[in-house]
Amino acid sequence: MCYFIANRCLNKAAIKSPEDELNPDGSPADRWTLCTLQQVEETKCVVRVLPIWAAAIVFHLAIIHQQQYAVFQALQSDRHLGNSKFQIPAASYTIFSMLSLSLFVPVYDRLIVPRLRKLTGKEEGITLLQRIGIGVCLGVVISLVSGFVEERRRTLALTKPVIHSKKGAVSPMSALFLVPQISIAGLADAFAAIGQVEFYYKQLPENMRSFAGALLFCNGAASSYVNSLLIAVVHKTTEGAATGNWLPEDLNKGRLDYFYFLVAALGSLNVCYFLVISKWYRYKGTEVESYNGQTEMKNLDKHVA
């Protein structure tokens, strides 16, 4: 319903009124008051994908935290490789996200998609929105796993610390326990991020391919701003709380696990939002969209200059 209402509103931009002036070549003198049908249709495509784009902002929060707080967790965990004296650099653990992404993509394309294609009869195995939706759901799983792992790490650090560093006590828990949450982040990207790129390229007009490619990067930028705002709100809200600041420099004095659970709650709400807009969305070229588009265009032909 909202889509059809937006359709009618945008269509009015191509209807010539008595006040509108035209250039000798027939183009509008003022492009802000009168638009071409092509401009209207391109705007419709952008408006149609924006709700999907917005859903990915909250999803990327979980990914950002694996590149941010997982490093801090590793710094206050046992990073020794087995019984050796060698310590794995804390920032190196994020490579498991890239490894899981790189390994899963060919497995998905070569093994999983052909089997899904036989079951669903779809060329892609599952629809693009279903692929993005799986990634959005995995975003919640990432935060939940991260919260439980952090709770365990913090408990051991406070009860059985290995050493005391400048940044706080180091937990005897192996930093390898962080690998599952980081690896899931790579799997989530394989579904959501790659699905988004394909979705934007297929749902936007061909002459807007560069814009489609930029949408994913704009999504990451928006997520970073939202993440900064969320952290600032958590700092200010928990500063005077009984539990203390959730995100201090020494993680053992904070409650990073609560923060992860908060992000998981936001992600759960985002999943519900994504399910609603996915049910509403109509792919470009579908019968429903084509029928309504033709009906609107026929009505426009009667009014357009």
TrEMBL record:
<feature type="transmembrane region" description="Helical">
    <location>
        <begin position="214"/>
        <end position="238"/>
    </location>
</feature>
<keyword id="KW-0812">Transmembrane</keyword>
<keyword id="KW-0472">Membrane</keyword>
<dbReference type="GO" id="GO:0016020">
    <property type="term" value="C:membrane"/>
</dbReference>
<dbReference type="InterPro" id="IPR036259">
    <property type="entry name" value="MFS_trans_sf"/>
</dbReference>
<dbReference type="Pfam" id="PF00854">
    <property type="entry name" value="PTR2"/>
</dbReference>
<dbReference type="InterPro" id="IPR000109">
    <property type="entry name" value="POT_fam"/>
</dbReference>
<feature type="transmembrane region" description="Helical">
    <location>
        <begin position="258"/>
        <end position="276"/>
    </location>
</feature>
<comment type="similarity">
    <text>Belongs to the major facilitator superfamily. Phosphate:H(+) symporter (TC 2.A.1.9) family.</text>
</comment>
<dbReference type="GO" id="GO:0022857">
    <property type="term" value="F:transmembrane transporter activity"/>
</dbReference>
<feature type="transmembrane region" description="Helical">
    <location>
        <begin position="46"/>
        <end position="66"/>
    </location>
</feature>
<feature type="transmembrane region" description="Helical">
    <location>
        <begin position="86"/>
        <end position="108"/>
    </location>
</feature>
<feature type="transmembrane region" description="Helical">
    <location>
        <begin position="128"/>
        <end position="149"/>
    </location>
</feature>
<protein>
    <submittedName>
        <fullName>Transporter</fullName>
    </submittedName>
</protein>
<feature type="transmembrane region" description="Helical">
    <location>
        <begin position="169"/>
        <end position="194"/>
    </location>
</feature>
<keyword id="KW-1133">Transmembrane helix</keyword>
<comment type="similarity">
    <text>Belongs to the major facilitator superfamily. Proton-dependent oligopeptide transporter (POT/PTR) (TC 2.A.17) family.</text>
</comment>
